[in-house]
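Example record

Each entry pairs one chain with its bound ligand, KG4.
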Amino acid sequence: MLTLGIETSCDETSLSVTAGRDVLSNIVSSSVHLHKRYGGVVPEIASRFHVEYILEVLDKALKNSGKSLKEIKLIAVTNGPGLVGALLTGVSLAKSLSLSLRVPMIGVNHLLSHLYSAFLGDAERPEFPFIGLVVSGGHTALFYCRSGYKQKLLSQTQDDAVGEAFDKVAKILKLGYPGGPVVERMAKLSKDRERVKLPKTFLGTDSLDFSFSGVKTAVLYYVRKNERLMDKELVRDICYAFQENVIDDLVEKAMRAAELREVRRIVVGGGVAANTRLREKFTDAARFSGGVKVYFPQKMYCMDNAAMVGVLGEELYKRGCRSDLHLSAEPNLEVVNA
Ligand code: KG4
Ligand code: ZN
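Structure tokens for the complex follow.
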């Protein structure tokens, strides 16, 4: 069964052709270069980019897969959460194709598709139940994933998402956008790993919620206070301290959720899951836990892409889910607890 995946929730225009976990093509065209000078995604620019390039990306996705539109049996599209103007382009294309090709269409939640990106390709597929941790530019949340696409939201961030915190810290340190990859690179070069101390966020002993605005503000105050000392070395040490701080929090809460729910598997998805230090720390924590196993998507599937929409859409379809032409773009679409 061939599924056409469509993802336009933020600044990546992506289309894919998938068959189950096999990715025949996955084209991602990003407008990130247009947002760099603003230090974050400008919704209007992202929307215009999708409208301008989506058909070109569709052509490329079909060409690279060696398939034609006639062979597509299902259209899976991200319908939220995300930027409304951006989502609308993908949803409109999905509706037109579904109507003209007379094939079913299914709307997919962006957060969940990040989690199920771990099911793509050759990597070992996690069994249910597992704890799902979504770490992206727009969201940070923990789920208990019970069985075939049934999940319960356990906790989420009370303020910034972790990717957003990486982006804002990079902006404070004038490192450019997007912040995640450059902060990771700088942190790796840090020579004095004890020099900068940042406060730990504490939301109560029992809380699995996240909060990243405190540590981001602490970086801002540290930079203001030490303005005269700022040089390359100090920037690297700040990046190190920030990255350790937020990663420790993510690892600790995901491990605690696994313990509380008596689950031995954790799946991490979203742009920040590309971070090598995050992967190392999770792997270490799992080793010491005596039995917990952590699964990550292949790095190329961590950032926004259509293949993860296709794989989840197909599974939902097989379980009887369908969308009709009333499917709307929902900027604040929530994950339904099932
Ligand atoms: O999942 P994603 O592509 O888009 C959203 O759904 O938000 O994630 C983008 C986020 C950005 O905030 C970016 O800075 C972050 O993922 N990111 C990283 C890394 N690569 C991307 N954060 C930390 N380390 C990385 N290597
Ligand atoms: Zn995303």
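Residues 124-296 form a domain with the Nucleotidyltransferase; domain 5 fold (CATH 3.30.420.40).
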